[in-house]
Amino acid sequence: MTFQIAIDGPAGAGKSTMAKILSKKLQAIYLDTGAMYRTCGLKAINNGIETKDEKALSEMIKNINITISFENNHQQIFLDGKNVNGLIRTPKVSVAASDVSAYKAVRLKMVEMQRDIAKVNNVVMDGRDIGTYVLPDANIKFFLVANINERAKRRFAEMKEKGMNPDMKSIIKDMEYRDKNDSSRDFAPLKQAKDAILIDTTNLNIEQVIKVMLEYINETQII
Hints:
This protein is α/β, with parallel strands linked by helices. It contains 9 helices and 8 strands. The N and C termini lie close together (10 Å).
C-alpha cells in the first residue's frame, strides 16, 4: 500500500528542501509540482503567449508535452523532449509560473499528472494546493511558513549558489507578487488545509525542521 505526504506553503518556506530530504529518508519519490508549473510558464514565454491570457493558455495546455522521469530519485522534467531543469529557475519563469497556475485549465492538466504518479508510488509532494486539492486524502499534510525577509534570503543564497546574480529587492518584490497571486486565485488557492500541521521555519535550521516532521510522520505509522 502506498503513502502520500503533502507539503504546502509559500515560496522560500523550505518546502522543496524538506521534501527532497524526507523522500530520501522514507525511500519515496519526490514530486516537485512547482517545476511542472514553471515548465508551463516557460512554454508560454517561449511561444510568446501572454501569461495572463486565459484563452491562449487554455489552448496551449491542450497540446503541451511535459514528461517526468526520476533518476536516483532526482526529478527530471522535459518540455517537448528537452530537459528544462536548468531553465525554469529564473525570476522571469517564477512569475510566469505563478501567473499560469491561476487558471483552471492549467491546474487540471497538471493535477491529473500529479495524481497519476501518486497512485502508484510512495510520494512526498510539495506545492501550494497539495493538501487542499491535489491529494486531499494524503496520509499526512504539512504547511510550512516563514517571514518574507527570511524566505528572500534563502532564495538569494540559492540563486548565488547557482552562479546567478540576484537582487534582493527584486526577489522580495517577486515573492510578494507570488504570495498575493497564489493566495487570491479563484481555483485551488494557496491555503493551509484544515488537517495540515503548521510549521514556522523562520528560526529553524534544516535538521530541526526535518526532526519535527519525522516525529509527526512516525506518529502516523504510515511507514
